[in-house]
Amino acid sequence: MSKEKKKNEGMTLITKTITNSLVSVIAMFGAYIALYGHLTPGGGFAGGVIIACSFILLTLTHSKNISLKIFPDLAASLLDNIGALGFAVIGLLGFTAGAFFYNFIAKDEPFGLLSSGTILFSNIAIMLKVMAGVFAVFVGLSIWSRIVSDTDKEE
Amino acid sequence: MVEILLIVFLVFAIIGSLIAVETKNLLSAVISAGVVGFGTSVMFLYMGAPDIAITQVVVEVLALIVLIRGTIAIDNISIGGPRDTLPLFVALVFFGAFVILGIFALSDMTQFGKPMMRVSEYYLNNALAETGASNVVMSIVLDYRGYDTLGEATVLFTSILSAFVILRRHGKKAVSEKDLEHVGILENE
Q1: B126, A108 in Cβ contact below 8 A?
Q2: In Å, how far is A134's CA from the nearest CA of chain B?
């Protein structure tokens, strides 16, 4: 009985199959939006939220166990802190060239991935921070306050 | 042409928010409130601000997911009953004051489509040469105005930290009946 229930956890087979093939593409698109933020529209915040949405999609279609196995809440908390600290450290490292948030890395030629010095690394730090933070808040709101398990029981 | 489209989307957003206020079902209220966000993002896209449009869509989708997930779990998902007169009166007074002050404030703004270009002109001319970023928005957010973004990241960090502390699983005391009596939940049942 319990095995049967585990098999039927989450949504239907159609949503599960589509999610399985789409979730990596969504995460990759989020990484693209964040990493190319200095070249094309987007940025660390939007990219981080898109990656977090891919994990939320996994939680909603499958079960909380799968997404928490890939991305545990402790790791989310750690990544959140690392991202925030990294962004502050990038700002502080600007003092090596004279000013807070100075763009101290030598620039490549324009329109390349490394063309804009610290902006790329700030985007990566913000992406990590927002991704982990948004997913952690979703976990806190839906799983810790047992919303997901309650509705699963009803279905 | 753009202005007509903007007005159309604005009307859609207003209709959606009115439905969200007036409907009895919480779930359909959440979904119709989403019209405002998506309409705003399309408006940003037409005005040539794809950065803000992307962020708006993404945050809107996320907020809708979280809100829907939150409203589904609540047992009583319909709101009814007549409204009290005093709160309605206060709301109307504040709405009127907001409209009057808004007319004064908006009459001082520059005309639509003709922004003030004092600082922005410098950014547009020098951003690519000084920062190397071809996306001028990112060069402003993370280079010229990095300090502001640090403050924004601090706000996000603090709010997520407080959400973690309030919603945490470990180290919480189990709720006893005495606590519930104190809060007054048991009285309603």
Answers
A1: no
A2: 8
